[in-house]
Amino acid sequence: MKSKLTIGRMNKKGGEKILSIWWFFVLVIIGVGVVGGVLIYTSANIDVREVEADILAKKVMGCIVNQGFLNEDVLKDNFDLSKECGLDEEILGRGSMFYVKVSVYDEDRDLIKDVPPEGSSAYEKDCEIAAGVKAEKYPKCVTMEENVLYYDDNEVKVGGIVILAASNQEGKNVVG
Amino acid sequence: MIKGKKGAEVGVETVIFIVLNLIFFTLLLVFAYRNVSGASVYEQAYAKQIALILDNAKPDMTILVSLEDGINLAKDNGVNADSIVKINKDTNEIIVGLYKTGGYSMKYFSDYDVYAKIDGIYLVLNIREKGATA
Question: Is 0.95 exceeded by the ipTM?
Answer without folding.
Answer: no
